[in-house]
Design a protein that fits this description.
With 153 residues, the protein is α+β, with helices and mostly antiparallel strands. The protein has two helices and 13 strands, in the order ββαββββββββββαβ. It has helices at residues 27-39, 124-135, and strands at residues 4-5, 15-19, 44-48, 51-55, 61-65, 70-76, 79-80, 85-88, 91-95, 98-103, 106-111, 116-120, 145-148. Strands 3, 4, 5, 6, 7, 10, 11, 12 and 13 form a nine-stranded antiparallel beta sheet that branches. Strands 1-2-9-8 form a four-stranded mixed beta sheet, with no helix packed on it. The longest helix has 13 residues, at 27-39. The protein is globular and about 40 Å long.
Length: 153
């Protein structure tokens, strides 16, 4: 599978982001944590630098890059999904599979192969609050920030 470098503007199929990792944080370890939480059907939101991860009671988990509207489904209905994420001591690379947006209480993901999924029931209020906090320029700690969000949307 050929990887494409990230371009400014709209995301293209199989876009790969390469970023410097936050100090003292292992991206793969945090992904493993959110995947495990999804498999246990626990709702959590995790802010990690410019990335946001969340898990749901329905057994889903996602990795989001809010600045570019990119997303990667990590777990769907309790089943781990194939993902392409590389990590080195100096940074990480993510092969994104879709773009996303939130409209009201609906989370919509448009895969780059053309398939669109809309989900009601994700913790969208918590996700939007976390994204707002990330985009406000508020400092994000070097350690992941976890948020329990059990509110129904």
């Amino acid at each position: 599978m050929k990887k494409h470098k990230k371009k400014s503007g709209a995301a293209s199929p199989h876009t790969t982001s390469r970023c410097k990792a936050p100090k003292h944080v292992c991206i793969q370890q945090e992904i493993n944590t959110i995947v495990q939480l999804a498999l246990e059907r626990q709702t959590r939101i995790l802010m990690l630098g410019k990335l946001l991860l969340f898990s749901t009671e329905s057994g889903d988990a996602w990795l989001l890059e809010p600045a570019d509207g990119q997303s990667l489904c990590l777990v769907r209905d309790g089943e781990k999904q194939p993902v392409a994420i590389t990590e080195t001591p100096g940074g990480y690379g993510i092969e994104w599979s879709s773009g996303y947006r939130i409209k009201g209480n609906i989370f919509m993901a448009a895969r780059y192969d053309g398939q669109v999924n809309s989900v009601i029931g994700y913790p969208v209020q918590g996700i939007e609050a976390a994204i707002q906090r990330m985009s406000s320029g508020a400092p994000v700690s070097e350690t992941p920030e976890r948020t329990d969000n059990h509110a129904k949307n």
